[in-house]
Amino acid sequence: MSQETQKAEQIISEYTEVWNEQDYSGIPDVVSESFSAILPDEEYHGRDGLEEWIDEVTSAFPDFHVEPVDVVASEDVVMTDAKFTMTHEGEYEGIPPTGEEVEVKQMAKFRVEDGKLKEHRQHIDRQGIAEQLGATED
């Protein structure tokens, strides 16, 4: 494994820690000032945007935890499969708290530039989340 690939994998590990610990002090070390998070229906920009995104997720799911299951990295692109586990304790997309535990998989593509995350594109099964929360019609 090249040194660049090892660095890219380390960045993902540190980024995961920011999410799991909800500790924003590591953000400047991990993401660039021009960071973008691109989801299917919304985007967050910059380090403040990342904090906003984490706050939105963790206000609905305070025990949010992400666990990378598979990581494939080159020097400037990292692909991950990960598992999210969380308990629904706050409003999520208009759904009042249910107390339900949720487990969902996601796929993400990250771009690395100058040793920091520049972009995070996430694909997650929102329908699966809604189903686990009991918020879909049979």
What does this structure look like?
This protein has 138 residues and is an alpha+beta fold. The protein is built from 4 helices and 6 strands, in the order H-H-E-E-H-E-E-E-E-H. It has one domain: Nuclear Transport Factor 2, Chain: A (Roll), CATH 3.10.450.50. It has a 6-stranded mixed beta sheet with strand order 2-1-6-5-4-3. A hairpin with a 3-residue loop joins strand 3 (65-73) and strand 4.
Brief digest:
This protein is α+β, with helices and mostly antiparallel strands and 138 residues long. The protein has 4 helices and 6 strands.
What are its keywords?
138 residues, Nuclear Transport Factor 2, Chain: A, six-stranded mixed β-sheet
Describe the secondary-structure layout:
Blueprint: H1 3-21, H2 27-30, E1 31-38, E2 43-45, H3 46-60, E3 65-73, E4 77-87, E5 101-113, E6 116-124, H4 126-132
Parallel strand pairs: 1-6
Antiparallel strand pairs: 1-2, 3-4, 4-5, 5-6
Structural class by secondary-structure content: alpha+beta
Give the count of structural domains. 1
Total helix count? 4
Radius of gyration: 15 Å
Residue-averaged pLDDT: 92
> Which percent range fits the helix content?
25-40%
- CATH class, named Alpha Beta
Strand content: 35-45%
Largest sheet report:
6 strands, mixed
* Reported CATH architecture: Roll
**N-to-C span:** 48 Å
Describe the strand arrangement of the main beta sheet, using strand numbers: 2-1-6-5-4-3
Along the chain, the helix and strand elements come as HHEEHEEEEH
Judging from the principal axes of the Cα atoms, what is the shape? globular
